[in-house]
Specification:
- This is Adenylate kinase.
- Pathway: Purine metabolism; AMP biosynthesis via salvage pathway; AMP from ADP: step 1/1.
- Catalyzes the reversible transfer of the terminal phosphate group between ATP and AMP. Plays an important role in cellular energy homeostasis and in adenine nucleotide metabolism.
- 48% of the residues lie in helices and 16% in strands.
- The protein is α/β, with parallel strands linked by helices.
- It has a domain of 138 residues: P-loop containing nucleotide triphosphate hydrolases (Rossmann fold).
- The strands form 2 sheets. A 5-stranded parallel beta sheet has the order 2-3-1-4-8, sandwiched between helices.
- The structure holds zinc ion.
- Zinc ion binds next to loops.
Length: 221
Amino acid sequence: MKKPLIIIVLGKSGSGKGTQAELLKEKLGLDYIGSGDLLRARAKKKDFTGKEIAKILAAGALIPTPAIFKLWLDRVEELKTKKNFKGYVGDGNPRKILEAYLIDDALEFYGWKKNVKIILVDISDREAIWRLTRRRICKNCKKIIPFVGEFRKLKKCPKCGGELMQRSDDAIALVKNRLAWFKTDVQPIVNYYRKTGRLIKINGEQPIEDVFRDILKAVFI
Ligand SMILES: [Zn+2]
């Protein structure tokens, strides 16, 4: 049997990694593990962990590793039993170096470590700031509309038709916070994958379809 294809997408806020993850999921028929989705779903349950996660999400802070990793692992368990599982694309995990180690161990445990591709959608800080201060969000379903390509022209949410607004959390100070967080927490992850010879760096400062083409090329080399 063919080994499942695991694609881990990394990138700064504004890099368009979420869009690329969605495209990969569609095009390759993969499952999707997005930490944002997992956390929002968990925050609906009003127990201790649900309430804590809701608080942390509202503050835009980082979720502690035990909480997010439990959710991630539950989702992986689900996929492990799925029929015709072809692989998954991961978006938003790992966010700390500890999580990168844990994911490595988990992929080994589940027998999925043979075909893992680590993609960094690379953009400069300047580009990230420019995009993030301009991107919009659907008032209704909270879908993020990136400030790139065709998305810039949208008047309504492509998913639900809802009204689009500028994100309140995209004030410049918060954008800078996120970039600082990328440097302290995510950069060590990038370095770790690079040192172990697994990092695939893709130029994220191109139109969406060109970024996607480069990713596909790199994945199927
Ligand atoms: Zn919407």
